[in-house]
Amino acid sequence: MKINKKFHLYLASLVVAIGLTSCVQDLDIQPIDPSVVQTFSEPEVFTKVYAAWALTGQQGAAGNNDIDIDDEGRFSLYRTLWVTQQLPTDETVCAWGDIEVVTMNRSAFTSTNPALKGLYARLYFVVTIANHYLEQTNASADDATIKVKRAEVRFLRALAYYYLMDVFGNVPFTTEVKADAPTQIKRADLYTWIETELKEVEPVLSAPKQAPYYRIDKAAAWMLFARMYLNAQVYTGTPKWNEAAIYADKVMKSGYTLATNYKYLFMADNAGTNDGSTVNDAPKEIIFPIAADGVKTKNWGSSIFVINSTRTTGMPTWGTTGGWGGNRARVKLIRKFFPGDVPEAEDLSAAANDNRAMFSSKERTLNISDVTIFKEGISVQKFWNLRADGKPTSDMEFPDTDIPFMRAAEAYLTYAEAVVRGATPIGGYSALQAVNAVRARAKASVLVAVDKDVILDEWSREFYFEGRRRTDLIRYGYFTGNAYNWDWKGGVANGTALPGYLNLMPLPADDLNANSNLEQNPEY
Fold this sequence. Notes:
By secondary structure, the chain is mainly alpha-helical.
């Protein structure tokens, strides 16, 4: 299986990590007490920095939670990030009655939202373990392996801070493990810190495609640079279109390219030869996967969530025994593939003339009159626990499907948007060429022109249900206000304008109560 190849991700004994919890004094999570952590095991703590992006505790599928929060799997890192980035947008709506789901569907964000509390805690858990690893290893050591691993850990810490910056804005900040309550850093200052951190680790990281699979290389740093620069105007007030194009171009020329088949990216053998598959070439595109193995990484919040939450009895076999009947498409997402009538079919990709239209309209309605009824809204069939090579998966309950957390298609669309917004084309490569490269893989029609809004729609067609839409809409000025509307925006059937302060999520109330250094975001 994939996790026995090259990088034994998530399998090490993590006894020493049991005492490692969040660096913030909130959410009933306590900082590391040096008197409690008796020994440091470098391989185990290093593994845990990666594992925290997928797993939720010290045993699977649930038990001995890394953070003190109810319903461990419901509040995993990826699942809470996905809920935050998807449910308030024009792509996704969920039928469930959980409080975090109901309020996210309506963009009614509060400081007590359990998903925001969970996301905040999980990201700070990554920060804390990374800080612990960096404090316990020697930055000046001659050991080249440790130097590279330290660079990877610094990248993962920077990535955690990136999401904190993106979602919450001004947040607690520390690079140390200590009992003192951390001070609050301004969003623009955190942006500068992340940028500096990436510049320092980039030269040390492995060359593209030279790191063991599942681990970070230079292309991941370039992709995060490109993403930050594309959103720089939101984070700092100053656009960085040229820089976004430059780093996106570096990714496009790094050796990572587009997988042959779009569907392969979301299948159970999407680690390719690392999964024993000679058919699935998704690793040529996936820069940073969040690993999954149905036997060895059991959890309720990673790929099992995006597979099972979109399925129910009667749908085509998807490879697991669970069908939770929750998430499906809002009308606006389907309209990006079908401006007119939507035919009834189990697979709409052929009718859409676009292989990315992984939807089912069978026994479903396009329009949604009641968000709690799963069959109102077109079904999304993007993630599967089935292999491209047809071989059996390792488990029928928990999937083998990795999350393609960073992939090369992002670089193409980043480049296109940056150029349309004013960046200088590199080597004569146009925004139109970059967009059409992505569309060609999907067997979609060739565009003859692109503008900002065309590219925003292309972002949705390529990355729907992958946990990024909120950020894209904010960058365009469409998440709040009335410039762009969608069904059930703000909890109103035909949509309604949202106040601008909702572009940031509130800091969790528990942390505000515990840390007097913090100020809540305006209007909350």
